[in-house]
Here is the input.
Amino acid sequence: MLNSVALKHVETLHCQSCKLAALCLPLALNSQDISALNEIIKRERPLRKGDYLFHQGDPFTSIYAIRSGTLKTSSLNSNGEEHIIGFHLPGELIGFSAMDLNAYTSTAQAQETTTVCEIPFDQLENLLERIPKLRRQLIHIMSREIRDDQNMMRLLAKKNAQERLAAFLINLSVRFHANGYSAHQFRLSMTRQEIANYLGIATETTCRTFTFLQQQGLIQVQGKYIQIMDAPSLCELSNR
Amino acid sequence: MLNSVALKHVETLHCQSCKLAALCLPLALNSQDISALNEIIKRERPLRKGDYLFHQGDPFTSIYAIRSGTLKTSSLNSNGEEHIIGFHLPGELIGFSAMDLNAYTSTAQAQETTTVCEIPFDQLENLLERIPKLRRQLIHIMSREIRDDQNMMRLLAKKNAQERLAAFLINLSVRFHANGYSAHQFRLSMTRQEIANYLGIATETTCRTFTFLQQQGLIQVQGKYIQIMDAPSLCELSNR
DNA sequence: CGTGGCCTTGAACCTAGTCAAGTCTAGTGG
DNA sequence: CCACTAGACTTGACTAGGTTCAAGGCCACG
Here is the structure.
């Protein structure tokens, strides 16, 4: 029989007790269905900063839910330059861009110590047969991803550097808040270079824009630590 | 009883005889399942140029498959400026960005005479229960959309004007070809202004870049008519 | 065959990129 | 614990690609 430490361990890693369930696949599932989902999920040891979850070109097997930490996904163009596709926080799912292929189209790397739940896709497909709400939730999450990507397309097509950075910070703020963290102060897990890459601007422009936003009294910057001083103005500047 | 003209009409509009089935939801379905899908699809009179299929904010009810013509989808930002999200050709599906909401997040407008198949989403969800392959195909199509959007993000974040336009033309060429049309010469259904808006550059830059690509011998431009003279070079320039 | 919108080209301007140099900071090893 | 160092961050100066403004030409459609 399991000792209490092991038991506690198992419970902590159960979808049913997961604080992120409301953001993730279990949303709206009953406890029996959550158990079924829980059964197929693999939980591995944490990734350390810099570790890779999967590489572009690896065989596609699973989607992943992030439990803690941050991941970035990126792809390489033909010149070998990196393009950062996104930063992913707890409660979010990744791996949706390869479901009709046999290989991941991006690389996923830990920005800090990160734990994930692996959801083998073939087993998930089996569950979709039996659990209509799970099917609906998966489609909803993918729909939301499409919408988010299209918002990002608008940012990249239409916004200037200030609007981009403001939108980035507001977006992060909202997502941290959804995870139960402060919406007003947080630590960036990514470098200025990575932010710049993601936002389609130069590293130097990113630095200057941080300085500018601080001079305007919208934010306080202390290296990676950001404090949002005037969220409404920042939001307005972001030109959503 | 139906007369022969009406009968022919019905046959022409059946998924089973549709030439675009291989690009659309029926892919890999057996004839019985295709019939079931066909049953729920509504086919309305063609849209004329400028007609709207749905507006941003309209209640979300259906996804649409394009049978003929071209649609553009766009959204308005807070300043009332339009951002074109995409141009959609026969065999493609639209309406995926609103499935977890109750309202469309974009406006769909016909670029020319256009016919669509309306697929009511609640009825589609019922079919997903019974037809595993349909489920898989829907997920595959959404996955592909995510991948395409992420490719567009890379274009907007990293490419200069020449690379953007080259990528745009190559992309159209491939999609026309998938529809059985020439990959080397085609008519653009959109204005220079719309291309510019979509690619995140100015109308004037688009014009100048068309001229430049023609001077380089990569394409021939005659108003809306484009001939691709050197696809490999154009493809290389696009920096995929 | 007239007209409005689309397309094209020129010229001036400006935002953001590039190059360069110096500072800061987190992580390492003595 | 502290000194060291590599990489991250910041700022300045200059440059360039693309935007904006302006004007004229070209269709397509009534």
Q: What stands out?
A: Residues 4-154 of chain B form a domain with the Jelly Rolls fold (CATH 2.60.120.10). The interface with chain A takes residues 75, 77-79, 81, 83, 85, 96-101, 105-106, 125, 128-129, 132, 135-136, 138-147, 149-150, 152-154, 156-158, 197-200, 239-240 of chain B (CB under 8 Å). Confidence is low (pLDDT under 50) at residues 1-11 of chain B. The two ends of chain B are 55 Å apart (CA to CA).
